[in-house]
Amino acid sequence: MHPRQIRTMRELCAQESAPRLDVFLSEQLQITRSAAKKLIDEGRVTHNGAPAKASKAVEAGDVVAADVPPPRQLDLTPQDIPIEIVYEDEDIAVVNKPQGLTVHAGSGNWTGTLVNALLYRLQSLSSINGVVRPGIVHRIDKDTSGLLVVAKNDAAHLSLSAQIADKTCAREYLALCDGIFSQDRGRVETYIGRHPSDRVKMAVVPPNKGRYAATNYEVVERFAQGYTLVRFRLETGRTHQIRVHCKYLGHPVVGDPVYGAKRQKFRLNGQLLHACRLELTHPRTGERMSFEAPLPAYFQNVLNSLR
Q1: Could you say which of 91, 141, 143, 178 is catalytic?
Q2: Nearest-angstrom CA–CA distance, 248 and 242
Q3: Global model pTM greater than 0.85
Q4: Is residue 41 flagged as an active site residue?
């Protein structure tokens, strides 16, 4: 198997302090940090042509080569799960994911995911992310609804991944947040990593403990009952980024079972966070494309009740 070449992402060059090599590999290969460390310890990873250490910092322009063994074969079952495909051609598909649907299999959960639904509905998916996550270029949380793009071949996957890294793929979200935002617009810049005491959560951490994360926001509507509807635009794509940044601002997303208030006014099955807009360049034609998804009914009903 030929080593997969990974170059430091431009966002890392421009804004981020260099992470550890195992953290870098974990994010780039979308594997756990322990799995990345195992690859390094087994001698499967080189850093600028030399044997690598997990704690080594990755600098702008460095080249990391990882000899990744084939993923264990899993028999993922195509399943007739209702999903809304808002656009499809021979290279990409854009899906409006409903709340409650996990994007891909993991942790013993091999059925009932978006990937199972895609295997049923699409004739081909990219293979770059292996048999567990075919076609998946970026993810949104299980209880977050909205748009994500799926790659149907490897060339499309590489193009879309580069656009996300280069910040030319625009991703916008709407969220209802607790409390009243004092500013009409703003920008949050922090480092996000694993919570120091609760490994299920992410948190704002010191620079040497996490990855740079930037989120821009703009207030859409304020409600007298003490809530704010906010539009967020991601510059980076860290795990739970918007949810963590909302908590950091003191305005957690309404309905968030992990980062939100313990007592919720509304009967919800998850956070009121919706990926409402996606803009990208088509990997084959170069056409700039924009997609929008309206708020799901349960989200809109909450807004109507507040109005």
Answers
A1: 141
A2: 10
A3: no
A4: no
